[in-house]
Structures are given as C-alpha cells and as structure tokens.
Design brief:
The chain is an alpha/beta fold. The protein has four helices and 18 strands.
C-alpha cells in the first residue's frame, strides 16, 4: 500500500513527499480562499478544494484543512470563520449543515505509544456528520465520531464519541442534554 492508501484506510502512515505535495496544494487553495476573494471565486475555490460539495456551499474566511479532497459536504452548507478540518481520513458532512466559528473537526490523530509517535507515524479515523446538523462555535469533533441527522452541538463542546439523530449535545466531554422531535 502507498502511504496515502494507508492514511485513507486509517492505518499508520508516514507523511511522504507525495502527501506533502497534496497538502501544499490544499494550503495554497486555502490561502487564496482566505485572501478576501469575491463570492463567485470563493465558490469556485471551494469546489476545487473539496472532494465533493453541493451547489450552495459557503466557506468563510479563516478556513483551513490538510488535503481538502477528503472532505465531502452536501447542499446548503455554511462554514463560519476560523474553521479547521483535519482530513487525513474521510470527513463527510450532510445537507443543510451549519458550522459555527472556530470549530475543529479532526480526523487526524497520533499514536499514544511514545516511541511510535516520535517515529513520525500517524493515522486517522473518519468523521461523519449527518444532515441538518448545527455545530456551535468553538466545538471540537474528535477522530472517529459519527453524528446522526438533526444533531445540535453546543458551543465549546468536545465531542469524543458518536451520537444518534435528533439530540442536542453539550459539554466536555459532550453528552446528550435534550432529545429533539
């Protein structure tokens, strides 16, 4: 397997020259996006940067990602200021989703074993966010999390595990605080 194939499979991998080049492509697109471009160009950059996106997609200034191509967003997606998505594995976000300012969505992680971590090996776990979700400002979605449809994440929450549809979650670590109808 190539290092990229290992990365996308969630296995330990080294960030080799090929992956660094793909990352630099995404970083250059993020710099363009964050440079105050007009609405039409902003939408074109989003379509070039992301692996898949609907027609009505908005990435506000301060958007950063590792590769971009591993991010899929649906229709009617709004991403507020200062959002960081670490997409070493697939990050899939459904239709009609709102991402608040300063949100972190992290598919990237590192080994807890000191020797392995120091070696430079890393890995990821995919993140899935269903349709009709709202992620409040400053929230963090950790690697491997799946959120069902119609989930509201309270501002500043740290989501360390998966949750079903139709709930409001909040806290550190996030827990269900309300069920939605």
């Amino acid at each position: 397997m190539t290092e990229k194939e290992k990365m996308l499979a969630g296995e330990l991998y080294f960030c080799d020259e090929s992956l660094r080049a793909e990352g630099e492509r995404a970083h250059a697109l993020c710099r363009r996006l964050n440079g105050g471009v007009a609405e039409k160009e902003r939408r074109e950059i989003a379509k070039e940067l992301l692996g898949k996106c609907g027609e009505n997609v908005w990435l506000q200034d301060g958007f950063y990602c590792d590769y971009g191509k591993n991010i899929e967003v649906g229709e009617n997606f709004y991403c507020n200021y200062g959002v960081c998505i670490l997409d070493v594995c697939k990050v899939k976000i459904g239709d009609n989703c709102l991402i608040g300012p300063q949100v972190g969505i992290y598919a990237a992680t590192h080994p807890t074993d000191r020797k392995t971590r120091i070696s430079g090996l890393e890995y990821g776990k995919p993140v899935t966010i269903g349709d009709d979700c709202w992620i409040g400002g400053g929230a963090i979605i950790n690697p491997g999390v799946t959120l069902g449809d119609n989930v509201v994440v309270g501002s500043g929450s740290v989501v360390t595990k998966s949750f079903p549809s139709n709930v409001v979650i909040a806290g550190n670590p996030a827990r269900i605080v309300k069920t939605l109808k």
